[in-house]
Amino acid sequence: MIAAWQRRYFYIDDTGLLSYTDQPQPPxxxxxxGRKKVMNLLTDMKQVNDDHNEEKRFRFSIISNRxxxxxxxxxxTLAEKVEWxxxxxxxxxxxxxxxxxxxxxx
Length: 106
Description:
Helices cover about 15% and strands about 30% of the residues. It is α+β, with helices and mostly antiparallel strands. It has one domain: PH-domain like (Roll).
């Protein structure tokens, strides 16, 4: 059985905690009460997938390291989607590149 879509309002706080509420809240009035934690973006976010499907052009997915959960998110506009993708990318840890040894190094 597929659950019905529910409108949620997502927020990222200064520590990288992604949470949502069922009703919109102004950022200056956002309190932990009533928010439901989704994940810590620094430790739990595995990747973000941008859906390029024309029918679902405002959709993107946030994949969690925990149990490989995926959260499908729809923005209201393309500009809002781009803003979210940029915000999520800012919490992505840079991948460490392996240092190449010089010729003759073991």
